[in-house]
Amino acid sequence: MNGVLSCYHEISARLEAANWLVPTLARLVFAAVLLVYFLNSGLTKLGDGTFGLFSPSAGAYAQIFPRQLEAAGYDPSALSIFHRLAVLGGTLSEFVLPVLIVLGLLTRLAALGMIGFVIVQSLTDFYGHGSALGAWFDRFADGTILDQRTLWLFLLCVLVIRGGGPLSLDRLLGKV
């Protein structure tokens, strides 16, 4: 039994010394699981033409402000400047923040921004679209809001705390 414990402690010490592994894997997992999700979500909000980012589609307003758009008779121009700026900011965030995380550039700041984005997204899904909240500590691991988004937030918290790791533009440009 002493040999098994000794081997366990040696492996544990080596893993503790590999502090570069966690942030690197966190960025890789983010890229594999969430990058395309957020980029595709951003694409659904683009308006027509070259400058579609700056002229979001009506669907963008329907996704972000469903009840307000309905109250405005589904006319985005009837919404306030606040709504327009929120849609523009949200759409831009869906493109910029995930790419920054994958590149490891301003990783902590980008991950913090994504945490805010996911919280707002989850509140919009629950209050605006009436999505099921789900529950923690139940037998179902696929509750869209509580279960999945909690895992997303944990992953992003790892990046806020640990940064982008050694294989990042942050490290290449100096300690950030």
| Average of pLDDT | 91
Question: Strand pairing plus helix content: what structural class?
Answer: mainly alpha
Q: What Rg is obtained from the alpha carbons, in whole angstroms? A: 20 Å
Oligomer: single chain
**Stretches where pLDDT falls below 50 for ≥5 residues?**
none
Helix content: 55-70%
Give the overall silhouette: elongated
The total number of structural domains is 1
Biggest β-sheet description: none
State the order of secondary-structure elements, H for helix, E for strand: HHHHHHHH
Proportion of residues in β-strands: under 5%
Instruction: Give the end-to-end Cα distance, rounded to a whole number of Å.
Output: 44 Å
Number of helices: 8
Q: How many distinct beta strands?
A: 0
